[in-house]
Description:
By secondary structure, the chain is mainly beta.
Amino acid sequence: MKKLILNLLAIFAFSFATQAQDVIGKWKTIDDETGKPKSIIEIYKEGNKYYGKIVELLTEENKDGVCRTCETKYKNKNIIGLVILKDLEKDGDEYEDGEIMDPKNGKTYSCYIKLEEPDKLKVRGYIGFSLLGRTQYWYRVK
């Protein structure tokens, strides 16, 4: 009986700790093609909305911090400090109704994010419906 109670308390404590986790902080992105770390994104809150900006580049590509491959107004602009996540609103355990900008080409997509585990963030960018899109996983920087 004592083991059962201890196990239940441990499960409760773990689930509460997971729910208390927040997306605010620094996250490492992984390149879809190479599987290698690409950048560090800092997610922060302003008012009731969440944003994410690039604070560090981890690859040799664009190491000078200039977006040469962007096709939009971001072409030849600094990548460090670039806000790529915008206007996300917390709804239960998801953050939705926001936008994500792909720094590779400067295009913007609808976006939602969800904390899958305390240190693993699901990031989904899409056009129109969330079924038509791409998912990445970002990992918390300790």
